[in-house]
Amino acid sequence: MNAPWKPGGALRDPFHAFVCDDHSFDVLRAVAAEMGWAPEKVNKGGMRNAVQTLSITASPQILFVDMSESGDPLNDINSLAEVCEPGTVVIAAGQVNDVRLYRDLVASGIQDYLLKPFGADQLRDALAQAQAVFMAPRDTGPERPHCTMAVIGTRGGVGASSIATSLAWMLSDKKKRATALLDLDVHFGTNALALDLEPGRGLTDAIENPSRIDGLFIERAMVRASDTLAILSAEAPISQPMLTDGGAFYQLLEEFHTAFECSVIDLPRGMLIQHPHLMGDVNTALIVTELTLAAARDTIRILSWLKTNAPQARAVVVANKVQTGSPEISRKDFEQSIERKVDILIPFDLRVASQAAKLGKTLAEVAKGSKVGAACTALLNEALGSEDKDGDARPSGKGESLLNKIDLKGMLAARRKDKVASED
Fold it and tell me: Could you give the domains of the chain?
């Protein structure tokens, strides 16, 4: 059956069948036993039982379903597709001898349609062809390695979540890559809100029951923003602490590697302390900052942490909401303080930001044609940039202590001098 995402890691049975009559039931059980499959996987009940059963269990490699009691075969096949994992090969059977129906069913994604009553030889041939189809190598085009990006804000309010949603949207819309967006702010995350979506219980369920996490869980728990973008987030009650060792988050990221081409993690900076292992497979770390003294301090600290704890991650520094005029620290002074360049500078545009919030769209989508839009495109290209930028992507390593940062020390002194002068 066709479906947006690739199959996950759940262990799948080789065969299930759902039939309406005793003759089909007996023939299927006998042939299943011949092929080494469990006869008890042949069930009474047709399409309705199939949909109900597969909505709570993993779908098999080969599925046989009896449509004799179906009043609307094409609509029922679509309902079946909603609960089937991608890659499942479906054989249908029925009593309607109509070439047009057969063609419509095949176009809907089934492998074959058997007219009832069918014999054992006819069934064997259909199952053998289904096996061959399932085992055949799939032409998926050139294989691209999965890219995992983490977006980390240096301070609250710098707009890291806005950058994360924009990046995920651009990867899915502009680059046409199947993208997962994971919002790890379990209580106060805004990624779903920014996309005008209800967060659902997917992330909460994953934290509470990590053993449930598999390909089927991912397919059903994630909220789809489009055919190529899905989000996993939560809006947990603030009276309900989420106690976890981070294992659920790690398992989710493992499943994302199978089901998607790209993963974008909106990672609260506190997670670096609590769950540093989440950065183990991150390819690109985007540090979102503002041009302030506190943000410069924490950019230095986060860059140093990444160098020690996630050396494989290419760091990209993004200065967000940069206003014209005189910021607290100039870009030049900020870059001297962190001992590297700011890679992307996104200007502050109140009109674009307000419009994005009102429409429930990402900043990048609303900002097309503006300076903010051009900066977002540059951000996308930088995030997907080649690994040869690693050399200038991290701090020089002269020490994390602010006492070694001459510019910051000078700025602190200047700020005190200005304060005394204003009081005088």
Answer: 15-133 (3.40.50.2300), 147-384 (3.40.50.300)
